TrEMBL record:
Its EC number is 3.1.3.11. It is found in: Cytoplasm. The gene is fbp. It is an enzyme of class 3 (hydrolase). It comes from Arthrospiribacter ruber. Residues 213-335 form the Fructose-1-6-bisphosphatase class 1 C-terminal domain. The keyword Magnesium applies. This is Fructose-1,6-bisphosphatase class 1. Mg(2+) 2 binds at residues 126, 129, 285. Homotetramer. It catalyses: beta-D-fructose 1,6-bisphosphate + H2O = beta-D-fructose 6-phosphate + phosphate.
Length: 344
């Protein structure tokens, strides 16, 4: 029998489509001495749910699944139909995968514990961020954090499994559903982005080793509530205007963060007079993006402390968030400190 050695194509007739998410995950699995494949499978489960949610969002107008669901979540926010659908999709994928023992979701009042007590991981998730943008075809997203449970495998979930600081995350990421759908994640060894190719049904590596610019020309904040900001933040915003920086605010956290991560910029949702603890949730929004930001060379703070060092005290705890290019965040914090000293 004659045997012919494989020689990669040199003709240029069939260009490589790139590295799939699945192949990339397998390649990187060796980075974790404690892992035996569960984390890799968990990331695949999230990618599968993301493909389904991507399909649902793309056909929302045709399927009559846009608009309000008629209920409010624990935050008192109106649930959109796609909020509920996305929550079901991720819950279903993660429960059937077998690697997760519990989920913290924006859409559920309490921790959802699975019957699978052998699961090693706890997932905190905002299934569909930016719900108010669904009906007007603006980018929305999913945000997730993955924690390793601290109590013995097989035992009942306890508070210490759930209330973990962001610096204990083993992975975090987001999916943005926009002009293209992207999954961006980190396992603590850099940040990589994958773009979904719908005709093949696969995520392909498109943004390897993502790095945030140290400075930027974009600031993202809801200036409609300017009068509720403290004097330090007002001073910083006036400085941005004097420098003719670009104000860009979509109102979808994932979309604003993604743009600033790629182009350089700062996103701010501060404490205000009406929301003294901020608006964004620590466990399933701020922590996940802070982990990605730091792995990409950016910074995330609540105005006084590093986000990842904050110990949560409640499931749906809110936090101010200042996140983005290092020089811009450092400048905001310096101005805040200056005004705080003047008050004292």
């Amino acid at each position: 029998m004659k045997v012919k050695k494989y020689i990669p194509d040199q003709s240029g007739l069939a260009n490589s489509v790139g590295v799939t998410l699945d192949r990339f995950i397998k390649k990187k699995q060796d980075d974790f001495t404690f892992a035996s494949g569960e984390l890799s499978q968990l990331l695949r489960d999230i990618a599968l749910a993301a493909k389904i949610v991507n399909r649902e969002t793309n056909r929302a107008g045709l399927s009559r699944i846009s608009g309000s669901f008629g209920h409010t979540n624990i935050q008192g926010e109106d649930q959109q139909k796609l909020d509920v659908i996305a929550n079901i999709r991720f819950m279903r994928a993660l429960s059937k995968g077998g690697e997760v023992c519990a989920i913290i979701s924006e859409e559920d009042d309490e921790v959802v514990e699975f019957k699978n007590k052998s699961g090693k991981y706890v997932v905190a998730i905002d299934p569909l961020d930016g719900s108010s943008n669904i009906d007007v075809n603006v980018s929305i997203g999913t945000i997730f954090s993955i924690y390793r449970r601290v109590t013995p495998i097989g035992s009942q979930i306890r508070t210490e499994d759930i209330m973990q600081a962001g610096n204990t995350q083993v992975a975090s990421g987001y999916i943005i559903y926009g002009s293209s759908t992207m999954l961006v994640y980190t396992t603590g060894r850099g940040v990589n982005g994958f773009t979904y190719e719908p005709s093949l049904g696969e995520f392909f590596l498109s943004h390897p080793d993502m790095k945030a610019p140290q400075n930027g020309e974009i600031y993202s904040i809801n200036e409609g509530i300017y009068n509720q900001f403290d004097e330090g933040l007002k001073s910083y915003l006036q400085l941005c205007k004097s420098r003719k920086l670009c104000a860009r605010y979509i109102g979808s956290l994932v979309a604003d963060f993604h743009r600033n991560l790629l182009k350089g910029g700062i996103y701010i949702y501060p404490a205000t007079s009406s929301l003294p603890n901020g608006k964004l949730r620590l466990l399933y929004e701020a922590n996940a993006l802070a982990f990605i930001a730091e792995q990409a060379g950016a910074v995330a703070s609540n105005g006084t402390n590093r986000i990842l060092d904050v110990m949560p005290t409640s499931l749906h705890q809110r936090t101010p968030l200042i996140i983005g290019s290092k020089k811009m965040v450092d400048e905001v914090l310096a101005i805040n400190n200056k005004f705080s000293d003047q008050i004292l």
